[in-house]
Specification:
By secondary structure, the chain is α+β, with helices and mostly antiparallel strands. The chain has helices spanning 7-23, 52-60, 74-80; strands at residues 31-34, 40-44. It is globular. Keywords: ATP-binding, Nucleotide-binding.
């Protein structure tokens, strides 16, 4: 993300999805960030209500500073998590 400067687009997409889920009252929402192998961070748990404050906290924990994560198989780790 940092190499291609897509962080702002990712945050905008995340906010759009969170708003849609909230407005449509679709149920629980969980959000996790991931990077290099073994680096998975749960930003919002299924059991927590999604509020504006929770959204601000979630977005403020996104950094986009790690390098090429696909080569490190982090998506596989995320799915296993």
């Amino acid at each position: 993300m940092s190499e291609s400067c897509c962080g702002d687009v990712a945050v905008e997409a995340l906010v759009t999805v969170c708003r849609a889920v909230s407005q449509l009252e679709m149920g629980s929402l969980a959000v996790a960030s991931f990077g290099t192998k073994g680096n998975i961070n749960l930003l919002h748990d299924f059991d927590s209500p999604f509020t504006a404050e929770a959204g601000v906290k979630m977005v403020s924990n996104l950094m986009f500073k790690q390098e090429n994560t696909i080569a490190d198989e982090s998506v596989v780790d995320l799915l296993n998590y």
